[in-house]
Amino acid sequence: MSESVSISPALMNRAIAGQADAQFEVAVLYMQSDFNEDIELAEQWALKAAANGHIEAMYWLGEGYTVYAKDVLEDDPEDAKQHFEDAFVWLKKASDAQHPAAILELAGYYRRGDVVEQDVARSVALVQQAAELGEVQAMRDLAFIYANALGVDADENKAEYWTQKADAAE
C-alpha cells in the first residue's frame, strides 16, 4: 500500500505564502501519489501556481486537461468539452509566454478544431513558431507537414531543413 505524499513544512509554507515555484513543486509532488485526494490537490496547487504566472504550471494544466478530455470524450462529451475549453485557456496563456510545447499543443487544437474553429493555416504557423523556439517534436512535425503537403505546398527543401535541425537538436 502506498502512502500519501510527504511535503516538507518549509515548502508548504512557501506555497501557502503564494510563491508560484513552490506551489508548482507541491503540485508535482501531489501528482506522484496514488490517492485521488492527492491528485485533486495537485490540480488545486497547479491552478494557484498558474494564476500566479507560473508558465510551466499553465502548460501542465493545459496538457493534463487535454489528456483527460480525450480519455472521457466518448463516455462524457460534455465533461470532455469543458476540459478541452479549460485546456485551451491554459495552453493559450502558456503560448503567449512563448512556451514551445504549449504552442505545439495549441496547434493541435486548431488542426482538429477542438473548441476553436478549425484553421489548418494557423495550426501550421503555430507548429513553425514552436519549432523556431527549439521544440524538437515541432521540428519533426514541420518536416512531415512540408514533406506531405499538409496545409502547405510540398517543399522538400523545407522538409529536409527541419529534419536536419531536429536531428542536430537531439
Would you kindly provide a written description of the structure presented here, covering whatever features stand out?
The protein has 170 residues and is mainly α. The chain folds into 2 domains: 1-53; 55-169, Serine Threonine Protein Phosphatase 5, Tetratricopeptide repeat (Alpha Horseshoe), CATH 1.25.40.10. The protein contains 9 helices and no strands. The model has no long low-confidence stretch (mean pLDDT 96). It comes from Acinetobacter towneri. This is Sel1 repeat family protein.
Features:
170 residues, mainly alpha, Serine Threonine Protein Phosphatase 5, Tetratricopeptide repeat, 75% helix, TPR-like_helical_dom_sf, Mitotic_Regulator
What is the count of structural domains? 2
Supply the CATH class of the largest domain. Mainly Alpha
Please state the second-level CATH architecture of the largest domain. Answer: Alpha Horseshoe
Q: Classify the secondary structure makeup into a structural class.
A: mainly alpha
- What would the average pLDDT be, to the nearest integer? 96
Order of helices and strands: HHHHHHHHH
CATH topology of the largest domain: Serine Threonine Protein Phosphatase 5, Tetratricopeptide repeat
Compute the CA-based radius of gyration: 18 Å
Main pleated-sheet profile: none
CATH H-level superfamily title of the largest domain: Tetratricopeptide repeat domain
Tally the beta strands: 0
Please estimate the helix content: over 70%
Give the amount of beta strand, in percent: under 5%
* Annotation field: number of helices: 9
For the terminal residues, how far apart are their CA atoms?
39 Å
Global morphology: globular
Contiguous uncertain segments of 5+ residues: none
Protein name: Sel1 repeat family protein
Pfam families: Sel1
Organism: Acinetobacter towneri
